[in-house]
């Protein structure tokens, strides 16, 4: 039972829960990016390249063996077009994360660069400043003559 208690303490820590939320949001974000690439970017790339569909590009290592309509041995292929599309997915995700981190860093920098507003001097501080200025004026070379 001690191990269950220890596991519960581990699982309920704030950073573990934050990480779990990050994983769920990351998975959803990955689906959004995949849809963006599959449904918007790659069709436009296909039109720009004369109707090519990258998911159809592959290098066939071994053709399928057929017996009529029945597949005896499936085709063995390297689907490099799908790989290119996955790289585009990655680049978009990486760019979005870069922009988000850059934005967060700018906010942090602004927060640390902004000096705290100076508090108004108290009455005692004003009097001490006046006394200091008077003493400086008395000890200046012009007043010693």
TrEMBL record:
PANTHER family reported for this sequence: LARGE-CONDUCTANCE MECHANOSENSITIVE CHANNEL, MECHANOSENSITIVE CHANNEL MSCL
Entry keywords, A to Z: Cell inner membrane, Cell membrane, Ion channel, Ion transport, Membrane, Transmembrane, Transmembrane helix, Transport
Subunit and partners: Homopentamer.
GO CC annotation: plasma membrane
Protein task: Channel that opens in response to stretch forces in the membrane lipid bilayer. May participate in the regulation of osmotic pressure changes within the cell.
InterPro entries per record: Mechanosensitive_channel_CS, MS_channel, MSC/AndL, MscL_channel
Major localisation: membrane
Protein name: Large-conductance mechanosensitive channel
Transmembrane domains' residue ranges: 16-37, 83-101
Molecular function, one GO term: mechanosensitive monoatomic ion channel activity
Family, per entry: Belongs to the MscL family.
Keyword Transmembrane helix: yes
Topology of this chain in the membrane: Multi-pass membrane protein
Cell compartment(s), UniProt: Cell membrane
Record SUPFAM superfamilies: Gated mechanosensitive channel
């Amino acid at each position: 039972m001690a191990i269950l208690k220890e596991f519960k303490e581990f699982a309920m820590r704030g950073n573990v829960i934050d990480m779990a939320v990050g994983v769920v949001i990351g998975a959803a974000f990955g689906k959004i990016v995949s849809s963006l690439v599959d449904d918007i970017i790659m069709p436009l790339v296909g039109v720009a390249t004369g109707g090519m569909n990258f998911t159809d590009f592959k290098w066939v290592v071994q053709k399928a063996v057929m017996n009529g309509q029945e597949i005896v041995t499936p085709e063995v292929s390297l689907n490099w077009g799908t790989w290119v599309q996955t790289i585009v997915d990655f680049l978009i995700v990486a760019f979005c994360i870069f922009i988000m981190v850059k934005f967060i860093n700018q906010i942090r920098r602004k927060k640390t660069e902004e000096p705290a507003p100076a508090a108004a001097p108290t009455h005692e501080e004003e009097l001490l400043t006046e006394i200091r200025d008077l003493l400086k004026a008395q000890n200046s070379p012009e007043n010693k003559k």
